[in-house]
Amino acid sequence: RDSIRRMRIRFTSTISSSSPSRTRTDSNLCVVHNTTSRSRKVSTEIRPHISRRSGHVQASLMTHSAKLADSKSKATTGKSTDAPITVVAGNEAADLDSIACATAMAAILSVKGECCVPYVCVPRDDLPLRPDAQWLLEDAGVDAREAIVFADELDIHNLASEGRLKSLILVDHNAPAGPLAGLASNVSRVVDHHENSGTFASTDAVDVTIEMVGSCSTLVWGELEKAGIDDPALRRLLLGAVLLDTQNLGDGARHTNKDAQALASLAAEPALRPGETAAALYEELKRRRFDQSNLSARDLLRRDYKQWRMGAYEVGIASFGVPFQDACSLLDALGSFRDERGVDFLVCMSAFNDANSNFKRQLLLSGGKEPGVAESLKAMGLSLEEQGIGIQALDDGSEVNLNKSSDSDVLCFIQKDVKQSRKQIQPCLLKFFEQQQSV
């Protein structure tokens, strides 16, 4: 790399916890949190806890928003003589977890006196494609127009070339990609819950925290606690992200003791409305996230999209909440979307509740009609199975023939293990394509 610096990596196990059990018994909260056991659901009887812990900073959202808005103005229209900017960037999928983490971490740093902006790696016009995030920002009172920087509002490469980028902090990912590609030498810190990409070697001076928790917002909650910031709006953003990512500590999602601790703490503060429960907020967010019935096929593909270089190939993964059978124009859009993004292979992942309210996942592998693509897709599916991704061919007898497309070779599967999200699929695909390159 251009700049080789030292790195401190903290890999903290979250499979077990040494924290003692504790019982909160004040008048606003009546629930026992056993922090040494896993997978405990937060009681739906949780009510807002309106008292303040001693020593916590009483900073209002108005203060945070004003500071972030001022930093955004300096970042987007400032002069070279202005204070350098710290950018906190979520991943290129720009889901609720990434947006909440970037916003909260930027607010934490702004309280400490940094000129800092939260950065979302998609254009502003793409925010409505994330109705859960858009709604929660508005509901929490966060003005995204004033406080958050979107990809089409700031060229971070120009900021760096002008000497105005103090540092880049990555949250919810650990390798700069998309509009952040090529900025690894500017990264000073990483807070993430995905598998370590190895981008930052042990000689780099980057403070890296990678913990395999269910939600990155759980880790940022820890930073909020350390900073002593007791802001209901920031806590509501983080609470919503943890609820969605862990499915309210449900059996079908990955979560740890630390996620349970974060959820209990966040739900016990005035992040909830009077009379509102954590379960009710989760159901509202889930309803908004999965209501994608009015989105076009192209919008479905781009609403939660990530792309990687895997061996000799460009590979994209699109996630959405509509069963493949219900996305009738999906197959016709695959080829044009691959061309638009410049990828060789496009993988689609669908997560949804069926008619019986059972959580389901589907997987689609696609490539062009070039010679050898169909064989590569079959080998890809076999490799996923060999690596422990349980899949079976999708054939529901519907009128939509999911394996026929005019410009794409396609394979569709049902995922047997619904806990396996993109975080688990992506490393398996990377291993497959790297092996293909070495053959």
What this model shows, in words?
The chain is an alpha/beta fold and 439 residues long. Helices cover 35% and strands 18% of the residues. The chain has helices spanning 61-77, 96-111, 131-140, 144-147, 156-161, 216-227, 232-246, 257-267, 278-290, 297-303, 330-341, 373-386, 422-438, and strands at 8-11, 22-24, 31-33, 85-89, 116-120, 149-150, 165-171, 187-192, 207-210, 305-310, 313-320, 345-353, 359-367, 391-393, 409-415. The strands form three sheets. A seven-stranded parallel beta sheet has the order 1-9-8-7-4-5-6. A six-stranded mixed beta sheet has the order 10-11-12-13-15-14, sandwiched between helices. The protein has a two-stranded antiparallel sheet with strand order 2-3. β11 (313-320), α11 and β12 form a beta-alpha-beta unit.
